[in-house]
Write a structure and sequence with these properties.
Helix 1 crosses helix 2 and helix 9 packs across helix 10. The protein is of the alpha/beta class and 306 residues long. An eight-stranded mixed beta sheet has the order 3-2-1-4-5-6-7-8, with helices on both faces. It folds into two domains: 174 residues, Rossmann fold (3-Layer(aba) Sandwich); 116 residues, N-(1-d-carboxylethyl)-l-norvaline Dehydrogenase, domain 2 (Orthogonal Bundle).
Amino acid sequence: MSTAVAVIGAGTIGRSFAYLFARSGYTVRVFDPRDDLAEVVAGLQADVTADASARGEVASQVGTVEEADTVEAAVDGVSFVQESGPEDPEAKPALFSQIAEAAPADAVLATSSSTIPASSIAEHLDASAAPRVIVGHPFNPPHLMPLVEIVPSPVTLAETVASTVEFYRSCGREPVVLKKEVRGFVGNRLQNALMREAISLVQNGVVSAPDLDAVMKNSLGLRWSAVGQFEGMHFGGGEAGIRGFMDHIGPAFAAIDDLPVDVDPAAMGEVFAQVEQAYGPAPTAAAAEARDRIQRAVLDARGLDH
């Protein structure tokens, strides 16, 4: 695999991916039509250099971040393309056609999209490019969060999937390959189910928004940082494992009735007010730094790179 990769799109996700790839030793070419791309790239390179110095690494152990003037210049000679442009189902196929025409014939063509399946992009490309299109969906920020959901289309080659897994693992990520396309993939579907239940509990006056967060942080969130949903159920069943869990607790859980919920913004006034009273009208840089510090500590405890 070539040590040169491309990042198309220098928004929040694209910048985080570019930093991650360079920290992992790759030469990263970044393209974005934004006017301040040169400053963005210079800032990313400075961050990579500073982080390497803090870790006691020499320059040869990390890669570089370079500005590209065009899509074509960014993808020339690369082995992997990470597209992180706007979530526009009409624009992405045209962009991928441009990428595929200029990139090497064996380059993986990945999109960071969280809603647009690879098949809706691949169907607009020729037979040589379509099998190399794949979703590489991160959780934000990708340089910190280990998960990357890999979602092939029905025509994606097995070799493309394998190369994508290998690449993300080389960057210290934890790729999970989905067996088929589904709207929202896995992480966002789980997040959506929990979000709706959380909103419902607040709307129905069961708990306040900050107290619900306290429940999450001091029970489920803490547990889920160590074990997943099914592994937790397996522990919960004692010697009988998940079978015992479902035998003893499953019926009681199944009997829990659904509360009404309305996620339309017009109906979310009370939820908005409680969240903003608890945390301020907008997230602060200090709060984000505290979140990242805690998440890094969890990653350290799990022995994962970040």
